[in-house]
Write a structure and sequence with these properties.
four-stranded antiparallel sheet, 2 domains, Serine Threonine Protein Phosphatase 5, Tetratricopeptide repeat
Length: 463
């Protein structure tokens, strides 16, 4: 037995030293069948490292569908770009006519949103296999929307838009706190915090932010009522843009089409506003475009198509609203959609597959159903049972991230707890970075890894 074990080890060592592009997949398969775990790992790691070189080998073309699925879906695949993976899929599927039925399965496992717009137009939309497959064509259409609809790019983050571990980019959450230095990036994959360049000015309480493309736009605030700044993620720097026509804080800012819309808020005279103005990102000018049906501040918001949905907020110092209203950017008109179960201000909205969820200060999770001119809202879950002001909320990969927030009675939550909500939410993660108490905004985007400098040891506050 000892001799057999020694011989087996010798064979494993020999094969491990002779893994190549041409034989790595064969060695990987045989090692798995023979329960040679170390050799299988060596070969599999080689496949990950050299994938661009092995995708056209006979070994690769001879793989079965399950092995191809493992490679395409692997988080550790080391490719310079996702075009390499899509090319590999098309090579494998095109090798045998019978494999065409597997095309949709493989494309669904890929990071299709991360291929270039040019690749989609010139390669995918001229590929006969794709043009003949309606399911795949729909996936390609959605990936094209990811590039074209800059205002909606980061509403959601499907698996097809999540960067692999070896990528030059990371999916991040941008968190804007109170004060010019409280501007951070949280990397979902590594759970690390990074300090980002400070805002040019301390905008004060009540500033608002949104994304357009991969950039972040921050507007207004108690100290800089008219200001608009753009954080260019590819340059890791700020740009000052044209000021708003009407200074405001505690307002809503959203992106629709090529424009940024600011709605409602509070002015210097402490008057609640109903005015709406629009910043054209191409012409770089502000235009007054209309009015909300009801003047509100500290509202929640969501965008569906060309409609901005405004949820609750405060009408004045003593009246909190439960009204849901809509501002239609196509017609610049506003109307009432309905009411929420109760009055609330600063509810945080989450969008998943055009479904709107609201998370209130009291921890209620409400699901909103929109019709053409009306809305209905139903209570779905309870995340906590105490007041938590100025918190942020964002859904990513099935996890609801709750960020910061003031809790006057010092109540707090566990770090993570499970929640099952119609396959949308799987768990809740409670993030309380000690540097941030009030969260002005938390926004998803992508950044190049080299822009993210030394990781911060962000203590978790139990305030």
């Amino acid at each position: 037995m000892l001799q057999i074990a020694c011989l087996r080890q010798y064979c494993e060592d020999f094969l491990a030293d002779h893994i190549s592009n041409e034989n790595c997949l064969t060695i990987w398969r045989e090692a798995r069948l023979s329960s040679c775990k170390v050799l299988a790992n060596e070969a599999w790691n080689f496949v990950h490292r050299e994938f661009p070189s092995i995708k056209s080998t006979e070994d690769f073309l001879a793989c079965d569908i399950d092995d191809i699925c493992l490679m395409v879906a692997s988080e550790d695949l080391n490719v310079p770009n996702e075009e390499e993976v899509i090319d590999a899929i098309l090579l494998w599927v095109g090798h045998e006519e019978s494999r065409r039925k597997q095309l949709s399965r493989l494309i669904a496992l890929s990071r299709l949103c991360l291929v270039s717009e040019d690749f989609i137009l010139r390669r995918l939309l001229t590929e006969q296999m794709i043009l003949e497959n309606q399911e795949v064509l729909e996936m390609v259409r959605r990936s094209l929307e990811y590039h074209i609809l800059l205002s909606r790019r980061h509403d959601e983050c499907p698996p097809s838009a999540m960067y692999r571990r070896a990528s030059l980019y990371d999916n991040v959450m941008i968190v804007l706190g109170e004060g010019k230095d409280n501007f951070y990036a949280y990397v979902f994959k590594t759970e690390e915090w990074f300090q980002l360049p400070a805002l040019p000015e301390d905008m004060g309480l009540g500033s608002s932010a949104c994304s357009y493309g991969d950039d972040i736009f921050v507007a207004g605030g108690k100290n800089t009522m008219n200001a608009l700044f753009q954080f260019e993620t590819r340059k890791n720097s700020w740009v000052k843009l044209a000021p708003m026509n009407v200074g405001r804080r505690n307002h809503v800012i959203v992106a629709v089409g090529p424009c940024l819309y600011v709605l409602g808020g509070l002015n210097n005279e402490v008057t609640t506003l109903n005015s709406v103005e629009c910043y054209d990102t191409i012409k770089a000018v502000w235009t007054d475009v209309g009015f909300l049906h009801t003047a509100v501040r500290s509202s929640g918001s969501a965008v569906i198509g060309k409609k901005v949905i405004i949820c609750g907020g405060k009408e004045n110092d003593t009246v909190t609203s439960k009204t849901v209203q809509c501002f239609n950017t196509a017609t610049n008109t506003s109307y009432i959609l309905g009411e929420m179960p109760s009055e609330t201000c600063l509810p945080r909205t989450i969008i998943d597959m055009d479904k709107i969820y609201l998370i209130t200060q009291e921890g209620c999770v409400w699901k909103m159903k929109l019709n053409d001119r009306s809305s209905s809202i139903h209570h779905k879950s309870q995340l906590w049972d105490f007041a938590r002001y100025w918190h942020g909320a964002l859904l990513h990969d099935g996890i609801v991230y709750i960020i910061a927030g003031e809790t006057p009675d010092n109540s707090d939550l566990p770090d993570v707890w499970p929640i099952e909500l119609q396959g949308v939410f799987q768990s809740v993660r409670n993030l309380r970075p000690a540097n941030i108490t009030r969260c002005m905004a938390c926004i998803r985007t992508t950044m190049e890894k080299y822009m993210l400098k030394d990781s911060l040891a962000m203590d978790i506050s139990r305030v």
